[in-house]
Amino acid sequence: MSFLEYAPAPESTAILNLKDEYGLFIGGEFVEGSGTAFSTISPADERAIATVQTADASDVDRAVGAARQAYERVWSKMSGADRGKYLFRIARLVQERARELAVAESLDNGKPIKESRDVDVPLVAAWFFYYAGWADKLDYAGLGPNPQSLGVAGQVIPWNFPLLMLSWKIAPALAAGNTVVLKPAETTPLTALLFAEIVQQAGLPAGVVNIITGAGSTGEALVQHPDVNKVAFTGSTGVGHAIAKSVAGTGKKLTLELGGKAANIVFDDAPIDQAIEGIVNGIFFNQGHVCCAGSRLLVQESIHDDVIERLKSRLSTLRLGDPLDKNTDIGAINSAEQLERIRTLTEAGEAEGAERWTAPCELPSQGYWFAPTIFTGVSTSHRIAREEIFGPVLSVLTFRTPAEAIAKANNTPYGLSAGIWSDKGSRILAVADKLRAGVIWANTFNRFDPASPFGGYKESGYGREGGRHGLGAYLAPAGAPAAISEKKTRTRTTRTATKENRK
Ligand code: NAD
Fold this sequence. Notes:
With 503 residues, the chain is of the alpha/beta class. It is 40% helix and 16% strand. It has 16 helices and 20 strands. The protein has helices at residues 57-73, 80-96, 98-109, 113-134, 162-175, 190-201, 216-224, 237-247, 272-284, 304-315, 336-351, 383-386, 402-410, 425-434, 467-472, 487-502; strands at residues 21-22, 24-26, 29-31, 38-41, 48-52, 148-149, 152-156, 179-183, 209-211, 230-234, 253-257, 263-266, 296-300, 355-358, 373-376, 393-399, 417-421, 439-442, 461-462, 475-476. Strand 4 (38-41) and strand 5 form a beta hairpin. Helix 2 (80-96) packs antiparallel against helix 4 (113-134), helix 3 packs across helix 4 and helix 4 (113-134) packs parallel to helix 5 (162-175). The N and C termini lie far apart (69 Å). The protein binds nicotinamide-adenine-dinucleotide. The site of nicotinamide-adenine-dinucleotide (NAD) has 29 residues, from helix 7 and helix 8.
């Protein structure tokens, strides 16, 4: 029996005003798509939420054309201060519609409402506010004098943080003076379509933001479109490789935010109770569907048993179930495919000899669910120590010395993030210095701030999002050669930017 029995506390869906069908958002309005329409479903109960369109190559062409026109006629001519006003307006509208966006996100993605309400949506607003402030200060971003926008950005995002990933892509692109065509993941298009409504509400000039829905083939057509100047992709390493190949030699600027297999290193002098919370947050936040999740726990051998015992007792208190219930800690797995992948890898873990422990909890009979799971006795050669599971599964390894911890932490093809838990600042700095990871948290995990750059090493991709580094991904130094043969566009942008400079 658990200590506390919680009464259900479901968030109402009455605030949602969803349509049964959504078109593609091109040139400032919702239009019919040419591909086959499909349903987006709630992973918690497999019920259809709405029908969305598939954009085929001709729709992608229309969307890129709308973005190009908007770039040439309006956005590249507008002053940074005016672009900033639109971004501030979007940020405020996100705040005004925060509850509705959080409910829609939890419904479509399966994540607990307390996460979409307290983490995702506030960060989305923060991202727009932050980049709104940069729009008229590009000359002071440390990217050289008079940096130039690139043109049209083609952006493809995954399903784990649908609206947040959208904000990471759209906010810096617009602040830097580019127009965008964005494709959300096929299992989570809903909040991007609500965002399209916000774009309309904000009165953004038509075509500055275009949202097209569809699966991988739509994304492929977008990144390969010859009139796209910049490609920004967040998703799996496999697709990232394919995109890097297709973009190579085209002159398109590219950022890739891919997978991860982060080490969360706990030393024997760590504040243990805080570390336990950090480990739980590191891997069980958002059902472990987090690219920078602390999916490999490296714990010093002397405290291993104590940490595992406390971890199991803490995990036994987590509440799994209805994503819209305000008490829920672990929501639904986003799709049947992802559930299958998690199952395959956890079965491999058992087959390879690691010891499996699963938190005692009842799984709902409908929908896609996976109970929080820990593997102990994991070695660096096991698949569950090397491959990204992208689910609520923690692989535990041990170490004796800081050198061994560093060697094991770096023994991965990825390099997105890492965590260090220790009472000694000097140890944290010394270890952090040797970790090959783009983001390193000390005595905390999974903290995000728009001012802080985020990105990876090795197979985790290249380029940075967030902070002024994130602006750099959407700008070129003054006088840099045009990305594609859009000479007219180039001259106009340069002239506009110079005029802006004189103001
Ligand atoms: P995915 O690569 O399958 O899909 C991501 C997006 O790419 C989707 O919108 C999909 O439709 C599209 N896509 C698929 N094939 C494509 C192609 N050939 N060309 C262009 N677009 C294509 O990834 P996923 O399963 O949706 O997302 C999970 C992955 O994303 C994980 O590996 C995770 O680590 C990674 N991720 C990384 C970050 C980061 O910032 N580094 C953030 C979130 C997620």
